[in-house]
Amino acid sequence: MPRAKKLPKILTEDEQRRLLEQLNTRYASPHRNLCMIRLMLDAGLRVGEVVALRPEHVNMQTCKVVIREGKGSKDREVWIPSDLRDLIGEWMERRTDSQWLFPTRNGDQVPTRYMRSAVKRYARKAGVQEWEKVSPHTLRHSFATDFLNETKNLRLLQEILGHADISTTQIYTHVNNADIREAMSDFRQRRQTSQDREC
Question: What CATH topology corresponds to 13-194?
Answer without folding.
Answer: hpI Integrase; Chain A (1.10.443)
